[in-house]
Amino acid sequence: MRIHLSHPTLVRALVLNWLVVAGAWAQASLDSPGRLVNAAWTPAAGQGLTAIHGAEPLGTWHARVGVLNQSRLVYLPGLGAGRAHTGMASLAYGLTAHLDVSLVFPFMLDTAGEHYKYGTGDPVFGVKLALPGRVPAGFYTAVQVLVGVPLGYQGEHALDRFDGGIRSFSSGSVDAGVKLLADVHGRWASLYFNGGYLLSRNPQIMPELVYGTGVELGRRHRWASVNAEYWSRVAVAAESQPVAAVKAGVRLNVYRGLQVEVNQEWGLAEHKDAHRLSAGLRMHGRLARARGLVDRFTLYQPQPPVQLPYAPERTHRIAVVGFSGFADVRAGDRLVERLRRQLAPYENLEFVDLERYADVTHHGYLRPVEAAELARKLQLDVVITGELEKYAVKRLAGPLVPFVYRLPEARVALRLHYRVLEFDADQIPRRTVIDQVEGSARVQQRLRLLPADRRDVTSAPTAPQLNEVETRAIDDLAAGLLADLADRFDWIPPEFRR
């Protein structure tokens, strides 16, 4: 792994980490060490908060390195007060756009009086499969599998001889967990949802159902973000043993790709810690192409469209053959009229009206040979032809809970399969594009409470409203077609790009 950090940056990061961890040691709860915990219950290595993992993938070749430190005061009978320190080193890497792998490696240090015990915990390997595989997106879902391997320190120290003993650094068995993750990302806020099941081969660690939710404000902000989360683990046994906690935290972007985070956690139910402060560092970078640290939030910034120079050298004669399909509602003719209206203001585009000629085809999805014959007869530079494959009108759509409420709406969805043929000065085909484009529109009515009948036609839009939404859907389809053509051909003005 090669994430480059300059010497001053590394020193600055270590100093910041020492300061926030020192603050964490100053505030902790006074309690017993607590029972064994499934090793698969780990902080988020990739996207996410602390205990709440994020469904969003890192992205191909993106990596995240993190260090999270926790400290709490404990009480050992016969010895008195002591401290239990836990450090979590994590690494997550995006193998593909959908697949992330991770490793979390714990380091533990317990002290009481003049005695101490230190060593490593059980490492946890993780695999996460997320959909969709693009960043950014408004909604993500993922399945995550976590496996803890019993490689932690299992030796005994003087602390283990006192009544109650100190915590075990290893569960001594293979621990596993499966989680279902979901994220909802808005402009200013993000919501996280987790649910899963933890299982261990150690009979002292009972199977647990885990769930939680979290919120993050300012994830796209340049300097800082705040977050809060709630999680709960419920043992599956004759007598359930719930453990829960709420947490609030802040993350500061102190350098390019470098974050400092501080979190305060309050235990609920049978949680052993009344409150606990944790702090750490997170670094995000790329391991291929432009290697180095990069700010994660830059992925969420909209990329400016590439502006190609619009300087056509000559006038293009364009003919749009009336699109076939749904002739009863004149869908093809209405779409051609929208295209004509959009292209009319441009002097370099001459829109040829086929209705003026009696010996040419006016409507239909032309084959390449027929389109070439049409171009030869009329000396055309471009021929656009296609077929409307979908013209769906739903008057009684919208969410409905029977006998509770209904939000009536009408929806219109269109889909066009088109072919564009471009000819040279001798009407010889030099480029052909075949693709499809969709358009849609909808209109909502007022909310209705206690609806009596699902087929209540009085809640449907009126005929003028329905005509308006159909017109908007055709306009949207025409705009989508022109946007596709603007991305592919230099004779279409770039302002049509979406």
Largest sheet: 12 strands, antiparallel, barrel
Q: Give the oligomer, counting copies of the same chain as homo and different chains as hetero.
A: single chain
- Please report which band the strand proportion falls in: under 5%, 5-15%, 15-25%, 25-35%, 35-45% or over 45%: 35-45%
Number of helices: 4
| Percent helix | 10-25%
Characterize the structure shown.
- The protein has 498 residues and is mainly beta.
- It contains 4 helices and 23 strands.
- It has helices at residues 7-26, 331-343, 368-378, 463-488; strands at residues 30-31, 62-76, 80-94, 99-112, 115-120, 124-131, 139-148, 175-185, 189-200, 208-217, 224-235, 242-255, 258-269, 275-286, 292-293, 316-320, 349-352, 382-397, 400-401, 405-406, 409-423, 429-444, 448-449.
- The strands form 3 sheets. It has a 12-stranded antiparallel β-barrel. A 5-stranded mixed sheet has the order 17-16-18-21-22, with helices on both faces. Strands 19-20-23 form a 3-stranded antiparallel sheet, with no helix packed on it.
- Strand 10 and strand 11 form a beta hairpin.
- It starts with 6 loop residues before the first helix and ends in a 10-residue tail after the last helix.
- The model is unreliable at 1-32 (pLDDT under 50).
